[in-house]
Amino acid sequence: MKKLNILLSLCLLLCVSAVHAQSSNDTTTAKTFLMLQQTGQFEKAHALLDTLATKTVSAAQLKKAWEEQLVARHGKFIAAHFTSQKEELGYNAVYEKCTFEKNVVDLRVVFSKSHKILGYVVAGITPVAGSGTAK
């Protein structure tokens, strides 16, 4: 009986470790996705998308969204910092706090069950002190 309890405890520990490792991989992938876009590597960023997303969004559209919806509105990208992750409607969502010249933008990066990026959205905007107004 004692051996069975030890074996079950070990299995539980391994399962929890595997889930934690995959969640950690999602946070790394989210940061990589943002850094690739920041450095203009939109084809590589596009490769991190789930096949459902690649059917509807091209690398050129990723570039347009980054440049027109983020950089044009919030200024030059400075850094991204992991803030949290949680399960939402059965998907893992990673929240990154991205500092731009004018604003701090909270981005939610959503992952498929296969741990590929389904998409990302702006979840909040805070003006950087002394930058004027948020847009």
UniProtKB/TrEMBL annotation:
Entry annotated with the keyword Mitochondrion: no
Membrane-spanning ranges: none
Domain DUF3887, first and last residues per copy: 31-119
InterPro entries named among the record's database cross-references: DUF3887 (IPR024981)
UniProtKB keywords: Signal
Leader sequence segment: 1-21
Pfam families the UniProt entry points to: DUF3887
Protein name: DUF3887 domain-containing protein
Source species: Chitinophaga agrisoli
